[in-house]
Design brief:
The protein is built from nine helices and four strands, in the order αβαααβαβαααβα. The protein has about 180 residues and is mainly α. It has a single domain, classed as P-loop containing nucleotide triphosphate hydrolases (Rossmann fold, 3-Layer(aba) Sandwich), CATH 3.40.50. Helix 2 crosses helix 3 and helix 4 packs parallel to helix 5. The model has no long low-confidence stretch (mean pLDDT about 95).
C-alpha cells in the first residue's frame, strides 16, 4: 500500500493512453455482491476465496480477458500472487512492473487518501504488509515473490518526476524489444 501502483497506472492511462483494470475494483464488485464492508481484510478474504474456488490465477485471467477485449495497451493493477503473474507471463506482450518505497513513506501516503480502508494505525499497516509478503499457499498473497518476478522494478521514495522517468525508460526498452 502506498508504493505507487495507482500513480503508475494513472500515468499510463493519462499520458500513454492505456486502459486500466484493477484487482481492487474487481474485488470491490464482489464485496458489493456479497454485501460486505470494504476493508483490507475483506478484500484479502474474498480474493483468497475466489482463487481457492476458481484457481490461483482466476482474478488476473479474468482481468486479462477484459483487457484483450479493448484491443490496445492495458495496465492490470495490483497483482499479488505468483500464479496470477505466471498465467499472464504465458500471454503475449505481458510485462510486470513492481514498485516499492520505504514503509514510512508509503504509510504517510496512505494517510493522505481519504478512504476508510487507508485510515489505519501504523502497526496495522505493517501487520497487513507482513501477512501479504510471504505465503506458500498459491491462493494467498506473496508480494515478495511477485516483486522478484518483475520485469521492471521501481523505487518510489522520491519525487514523482523520477518515477515517471523510470516508467518512460522501461516503456522505451519494451518498445525497442518488440
Amino acid at each position: 500500500m502506498g508504493a505507487g501502483k495507482g500513480t503508475i497506472a494513472s500515468y499510463l492511462v493519462k499520458e500513454k493512453g492505456f486502459k486500466h483494470f484493477s484487482v481492487r475494483e474487481f474485488l470491490n464488485k464482489e464485496l458489493q455482491k456479497r454485501k460486505l464492508r470494504l476493508n483490507r481484510d475483506n478484500l484479502v478474504l474474498v480474493g483468497n476465496e475466489l482463487r481457492k474456488k476458481y484457481g490461483p490465477s482466476y482474478i488476473s485471467e479474468s482481468l486479462y480477458k477484459l483487457a484483450r477485449k479493448v484491443g490496445y495497451d492495458s495496465v492490470i493493477e495490483s497483482l499479488r500472487t505468483p500464479a496470477e503473474i505466471l498465467a499472464l507471463k504465458k500471454r503475449a506482450e505481458f510485462y510486470l512492473f513492481a514498485v516499492d518505497a520505504d514503509p514510512t513513506v508509503r504509510y504517510q501516503r496512505t494517510l493522505l487518501i481519504k478512504e476508510e480502508i487507508y485510515q489505519i494505525p501504523y502497526d496495522e499497516f505493517i501487520g497487513n504488509e507482513k501477512r501479504e509478503m510471504d505465503s506458500k499457499d498459491p491462493n494467498k498473497q506473496n508480494l515478495r515473490k511477485c516483486i522478484e518476478m518483475a520485469d521492471y522494478r521501481f523505487e518510489n521514495s522520491g519525487e514523482m518526476k523520477n518515477l515517471y522517468k523510470s516508467v518512460d525508460e522501461a516503456l522505451k526498452k519494451i518498445k525497442k524489444n518488440k
